[in-house]
Amino acid sequence: MFLFPGSVPLAGILDLLTVNLAQIGALAVARRANVYWLTRTGVVEYQRRAATRGRRRRG
Questions:
Q1: Quick one: three-class SS letters along 31-59?
Q2: Which of 3, 6, 17, 58 has an alpha carbon 20 to 30 Å from 41's alpha carbon atom?
Q3: Is position 55 within any domain?
Q4: Range of the domain at 33
């Protein structure tokens, strides 16, 4: 499953898909079931992103 940022307009979603399409395809072919977050810098595992956000809030 791939997640998008909350209030991104359609153009932003299309941009994220374009930027990450190769990586999305590679993950799908590898059958790595997980939840992933789409960012401008790449696809991030949801657990890793949640841990990073938690560290930022505490620090």
A1: CCCCCEEEECCEEEEHHHHHHHHHHHHHC
A2: 58
A3: no
A4: 2-50
| Residue 1 DSSP label | -
Q: Is residue 59 part of a domain?
A: no
Q: Which pLDDT score, from 0 to 100, does residue 16 have?
A: 93
Task: Output the six-digit token pair for 4.
Answer: 């998008």
Residue 38 is classified by DSSP as: E
DSSP type of residue 39: E
Closest CA to 16 of 50, 43, 47, 36: 43
Task: Read off the pLDDT of residues 1-57 as tens digits, 9 standing for 90 and up.
Answer: 888 888 889 999 999 999 999 999 999 899 878 899 898 899 999 877 667 766 555
